[in-house]
Amino acid sequence: MINEYDLQRFNFRLNEAKPVHVILNSHKDFNDHYFDMHYEFELGVVINGRMKRQYIDCQMEIGPGDAWFCGMWEPHGFELLETPCEAVVFVTDPEYIARNKLLNHNILLPFQAPPKLRPKVIAKNRAQLIDSARKTKMIFQKSNNPDWAKLQFFQILLVLMESWKVPKLKNDFRVRKNIRNALKLVFNEKRLVSTQEAASACRMSVSKFRYIFKILMHSSFSEFALKYRVRGAIDQLKNSNETQEAVALHWGFTDASHLHKYIKKFD
């Protein structure tokens, strides 16, 4: 039997009074890992150690003072490269970010840009970012205060955005809500989901769904769904004792050779 540890879904229960949630991650075991997707935005900062952040189309190694972003329903995960590895993670409500005017920046953009184009810490700000992450850790080891969560989140985001060269983007998070049912279908089913089935789940024609999905996710639906299944299978093969055949069947491939063909294609 295959355990469902390879993918996690979190219910952060964000609301108007608590639009930002803080998670303190401390990893000591190289077997710690996850591959996940969720509605909320995510911003994380490494305090010490090193990890490899994984997305559908890319991966990147990050260490102390480096940050990562995750967009709405964006598959992502990590592998540990150096332990102990500590990180502070902010999970935020996309609607709160979209309507917030605290900073003189479009703070939606870091979460909507492709992973390689998102803000990165510059050398002179690295120590400041580590200090901010440590302060957040110290605060939230004592209490989970929603006001401190907002303050620490915006301070770290501002440091990252001050020197960021903003790419041109056309994404609108409000439109992305329209494809939520298709993304849930991919996430929940772990099988081959047709574009027709996904379009029906979103109550759109196939042509409209294809157009909107391509704009928002920078990929066709069929390619996105396939890459998600392949990435999930790779993660499970690396971190479990299941046979290739069992993993292939779990992720909707006909057999191990079918899965291997796509692993070679996307590797």
Protein model, in words:
This protein is an alpha+beta fold. The protein has two domains: 7-161, Jelly Rolls (Sandwich); 173-266, Homeodomain-like (Arc Repressor Mutant, subunit A), CATH 1.10.10.60. It contains eleven helices and seven strands. Helix 6 (180-189) crosses helix 7 and helix 9 packs across helix 11 (256-266). The longest helix has 19 residues, at 221-239. The radius of gyration is 19 Å and the shape is globular. The two termini are 27 Å apart. 35% of the residues are buried. Mean pLDDT is 86; it is low at 1-9.
Short description:
This protein has 267 residues and is an alpha+beta fold. It has helices at residues 94-99, 109-112, 126-142, 146-161, 173-176, 180-189, 195-201, 206-217, 221-239, 244-250, 256-266; strands at 7-8, 20-27, 33-36, 41-55, 59-62, 67-70, 76-92.
CATH architecture call of the largest domain: Sandwich
Order of SSEs, N→C? Answer: EEEEEEEHHHHHHHHHHH
Number of domains: 2
The SS-based structural class is alpha+beta
Task: Give the biggest beta sheet.
Answer: 7 strands, mixed
SSE order and pairing:
Blueprint (H helix, E strand, L loop, with lengths): L6 E2 L11 E8 L5 E4 L4 E15 L3 E4 L4 E4 L5 E17 L1 H6 L9 H4 L13 H17 L3 H16 L11 H4 L3 H10 L5 H7 L4 H12 L3 H19 L4 H7 L5 H11 L1
Helix pairs in contact: 3-4, 6-7, 7-8, 9-11, 10-11
Supply the key terms:
single chain, 267 residues, alpha+beta, Jelly Rolls, Arc Repressor Mutant, subunit A, seven-stranded mixed β-sheet, 11 helices, globular, disordered N terminus
